[in-house]
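Lab notes, practical 5.
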Amino acid sequence: MARVLVAMSGGVDSSVAAKLLLDAGHEVAGVTLKLFSGDDIDAENATRTCCALSDVEDARRVAYKLGIEHFVFNFRELFAEKVMNRFVASYLAGETPNPCIDCNRFIKFDKLIERALLLGYDYMATGHYSRVERDGETGRYLLKRGLDHTKDQSYVLYAMTQEQLAHTLFPLGGLDKVEVRRIAEEAGLVNARKPDSQDICFVPDGNYPAFIDRAAPGRVREGDFVDVDGKPIGAHRGITRYTIGQRRGIAVAFGKPMYVVAKNAEDNTVTLGEDADLRASSLEADEFNLIAFESLGEPIHIRAKIRYNQTEQDATLVPEGNGKYRVTFARPQRAIAPGQAVVCYLGDTVVGGGTIRAQRDD
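Output from the prediction step:
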C-alpha cells in the first residue's frame, strides 16, 4: 500500500483516479490547487475551465463522498510567474504558447510533487490519460500514450523528468472516457456528467488578445502586413491577434485566400501568404527533454506531432547539440508555429519533446 496525493481538479477524470486508487487499497488524499483569484481574472464566470471556484467545491464534495482528506494549496504566485507571465511574454515575442504544458512542467509535476514528497506521500496522481512504465533493461521510466488514443494526453506531459515519472501515477491510462464516466456514475460522484474543460483556465472567455492587453498595457501596437517578400500589403491590429495558419479575421481583401505564415515581433510585422507558404519540411526545437533515452548521439526515425490534436507524422529526430534538435518530416507540415511543442514517439512511447523555435525548408 502506498500513500498517494491525488491532484483533484473538480472534474470527473481526477475524481475517478482517486476512487480507483482507493479501491486498490492505497492511502489516498486529494488536493486542489488555487492558481488565481477573481482579482486576476473573471474566474467566477468560468464554466468550462479547470480551477474555477466551483471546481474546488466539486473536488471537496467528491473527497467527502470517497471519505478521504482534501487539501487546497495556494500556488497563485508561482502560477502567475511560471504560466501566466510566460504566456504573455511568448505572445508578445510573436510565438504561440501552450500554457497547459507550462502548468504541468512547473506546477503539477514539479512543485506539487515536491510538496507531496515533503508531506510524506509516495506518489502524486492525476487524471491524465497516459501511462508510466519502467524499462526492464535500461531502468528508465517511460511515458506512454493512454490506451484510448482519442483521449491520450502524453503530448502535454513530455517535459516530465525521470524523478517525476518515478513518483507519478496515472490510474486512467488503461481506460477510455466512457468507462470513466460509468465508474463515476456507479459511485454516485457529483461530477459524473460534468463537461470536460475546454479553455485555458485563466482566459475563460478564450479572448487571448484582450487578456494580453490587460496584462501588458501599451505593448501591443498596430503594424504592417507584409507578403513573403517583405513588401507591405496592409495594416494589422497587433501581432497577438494572429496565429500561424489563420485565415479569418485578417480584414484585408486580396481576391484570393491569404493566411498568416509568420510573425516578427522585432519589426512588428505579420507575414501573409498562400496555403503553400505555410508548409515546411523541418523545424528547430530547443528546451528539449529526452525521456526514453539518457542522451541521443545520432539521428533516429520517429513519429512526431506539432500540435495536441494532430496525428503523429513520420519524421527523423536529429540532435544538434546544446539541447537543440531538428525534426525533419517525411512530408511537409502545415502551420508549424514557434512557441508550440513538438513531441516525438516510438510506437506508444514518448521519446521526448521540446519547444518549436523556427521552421526550416531543408
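Observations recorded by the TA: The domain at 3-186 is CATH 3.40.50.620 (Rossmann fold). Helices lie at 12-23, 53-66, 76-92, 99-118, 162-166, 177-186, 208-215.
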